[in-house]
Design a protein that fits this description.
Layout lengths: L3 H11 L4 H8 L3 H8 L7 H11 L17 H27 L5 H21 L5 H22 L2 H6 L2 H21 L1
Amino acid sequence: MTTLGKKISDARKAKGLTQEALSEMLKVNLRTVQRIENSETMPRGSTLNHIGEALGLKPAELQIQDEGQKKPWPELLVGHLFLVPLNIVLMIVPGYLCLHLDANTNSRVGALLLAFFIPWFLVSKTQQTAALERLVKYGAGYMAYLLIALVQIGFIRSIGTFLLPVLLISLAVLYYGDRVLRDA
């Protein structure tokens, strides 16, 4: 199994950089780079982001877990069970704002704004997560609602109520949001 240190070392060598050059680029001590590459220490937060930027590695490529670091199955189950009510809540908000009997232009504009800002918040908090994984975890409710809306109310009505654009904007932000944040 490839460790994070090995991945960083291989990427550094592929770029033709020495450990000294990388430490200067990152503005860290040479010994820090050596410890990271030897898997003596794990870089976190901004250091990990800077390493990824300097070596041209995507955040998903820096998410390597060693065999000893796997989470126990009860912890994984609880984490995934949390996603079910979260996705249900994320489905209810645009549905209520777009399809409720009292829905008007103001509530639909509010739904459009929430369709951008709620996923944007999720993206900003999960930048290290791969785009497809984020889309599946946090966008499953949106995708299910999209299919249900197209079957139940039809394509034309779902556009007229703004539900289809709201759901598509949310899914697009979940998938492409990290690219915008990274380029900014």
